[in-house]
Amino acid sequence: MTGNKVSRQKPCHHCKSRSASAPPDTSTIHYEKFWLYRHCSSVQQRNRQAQKAGQLFSGLLAMNVVFLGSAFISSVIFNHVAITLADVWILLSILKLLCLCWIIYYLLGTSRQPHAVLYRDSHAGPIWIRGSVLLFGSFSILLNAFQIGYSAILIQCKTRVEIVFPSIEILFICTQAFLLWNHSKDCIQVQHNFTRCGLMLTIATNLILWLLAVTNDTIHMEIDSQLREVEQRFAGKAPFSHPCNGTTSCICPNTTICKVFQKGYVLLYPFNTEYCLVCCSVLYVMWKNVGRHISHHHVPHIKPKFKLHGVVFGPLLGATAVIIGICVFMMYQIQATSSAPNRQVFVMYYSYYIVLLPLMSVGAVIGTIIHALEKKELDTLKNPTRSLDVILLMGAALGQIGMSYFSIVAIVATDPKDLLNSLILSYSVLLIFQNITQNVFIIDGLHRQPFVAATDARHTGHAGQHAVASELPGEEETTTSNEQEHTQISPDKEEEVKEEQNHEAYDQRRVSMLELGQEIRKLSLSYLHSYSHLNWKRRALREISFFLVLCNIILWVMPTFGAHPVFENGLEKSFYGYSTWFAIVNFGLPLGVFYRMHSVGGLLEVYITA
């Protein structure tokens, strides 16, 4: 007791100096509060400095790896004798093995430690992003399987690295897809710097894979040279050449399996670049969430769900655009696979775009004006996923915008008065305007708070359903009366019993059809009730968002599954050269496909929060 009293009564030096001017209790309390605040603020400052230092170091690591890979790939392009494509594959194989080691360590070690994942970012890794990782990853695995089969058939002309590299790629894709599907929302709280370096190394590896896919046209050149040689041989201009001579590299033998591998490789080639871009975006969000503490303000208490109410004209117009687009796409694919596409197919394809793109632009402009008229609060909470959405929308749009400007220059410099050239010129200008207006509409909608009275509208919708159900007559009386009538049938008359049974079955079918009609009437009345209770601004935003969702889906399907008229029309290819235009298309086309897919996710969120 004595020691405790002495220890409690022993004041510090600062307390002695202030005891004459103020009572000791109050001065001590204020001093302790000030010291605790200063101590906590210094700890938070040190944590922020450590976090920025870790982000800077991991970012520098990724930058050096990307520059090294870019130097290797550029050396292959400009001097393929000193640095071959096999050297790039060996470098990428080493990087992928390092990434595999880190991913396995993260899955089995880091994420399973106590207090490793205390928070999960609800905005990170939405279902459509993770679904696209699985979709594009599956197609990328199939692409590498086709590449392995193609190289195995031409093993006399290929190296063993061309079989080993796709095998490691398949293992890398499967492991990375498993990580992103299960741990994309993690805010890891242990081993910060090691986790940041692992994530950045994986991002850098995906970027180098994307850059290699953009610039590597080896198999495409082999297929193109084979087609040219076959055409010249049938025309009598070139003699038969051995498949492994020095002029035409490897030529696929005239077998069905080799043709399947060739066609499958060309068809699935854009999915690999798409997979790399999607993985980079998810990994970047994970990197930003390392060591992040999420307060209760960032966690949504009631997450809005997608419900198809409040839209009538948007689905109708969007479904019409989708049906017409599928017909155009099928006609183009039939012409492209049977022979070289003629001018009529290109005219039909670009005419469809010229009609659809202005409608999408007008809808986006009207939606932006309605956003300006609405008095909604802006979402000012710090959210790395939301910031990344804006960056990806703006960055992915550069692919289609860049390709459009290259096409505009080529057309204006050659013959802009030709019918097909004028259609391509109009398509390019409208595509630039549509991307800009849609970006403004989506970004403006993403930065607004969800509608507050959504729950009230939901309650009124349920009340309307109960009111409609109460107004509709029941069927219990009719069924009970029928049962009472059937019990009075005489058992002696078999024919009458059969006839009565037929009438009973007919009555049951009639009653079931009546019930079905009444259920449809209930649903339609409740739908119209909820539709009428929305104000015109919310109704217009939902109509526009749903229409743009369907339009972006069809504009995603057409270039993703083989419709590439920007490369097959021959105008830009003859103007810029095969290799240059191949690199431009492989740079812009995957970005354009990624933009359409990302726009669908953003527009769905705008629809939900409207």
Walk me through the topology:
Elements: H1 2-9, H2 13-18, H3 24-78, H4 85-110, E1 117-120, H5 127-153, H6 161-183, E2 186-188, H7 192-215, H8 218-235, H9 256-288, H10 313-338, H11 343-373, H12 384-413, H13 419-446, H14 454-471, H15 476-487, H16 494-532, H17 536-560, H18 565-568, H19 571-576, H20 578-609
Antiparallel strand pairs: 1-2
Pfam families: Otopetrin
Biased composition (Basic residues): 7-17
Membrane topology: Multi-pass membrane protein
Structure in a nutshell:
The chain is mainly α and 610 residues long. The protein has helices at residues 2-9, 13-18, 24-78, 85-110, 127-153, 161-183, 192-215, 218-235, 256-288, 313-338, 343-373, 384-413, 419-446, 454-471, 476-487, 494-532, 536-560, 565-568, 571-576, 578-609, and strands at 117-120, 186-188. The chain folds into 2 domains: 41-288, no CATH class; 313-456 and 534-609, no CATH class.
Task: Give your account of this protein's structure.
With 610 residues, this protein is an all-alpha fold. The protein has 2 domains: 41-288, no CATH class; 313-456 and 534-609, no CATH class. Helices cover 77% and strands 1% of the residues. It has 20 helices and 2 strands. It has a two-stranded antiparallel ribbon with strand order 1-2. Helix 4 (85-110) runs antiparallel to helix 7. The chain is globular. The protein starts with a helix and ends with a helix. The chain crosses the membrane at residues 56-82, 88-108, 128-151, 163-181, 193-213, 267-287, 308-332, 352-370, 390-413, 419-442, 544-563, 575-595. Residues 7-17 have a biased composition (Basic residues). It is found in: Cell membrane. Keywords: Cell membrane, Hydrogen ion transport, Ion channel, Ion transport, Membrane, Transmembrane, Transmembrane helix, Transport. Residues 483-504 have a biased composition (Basic and acidic residues).
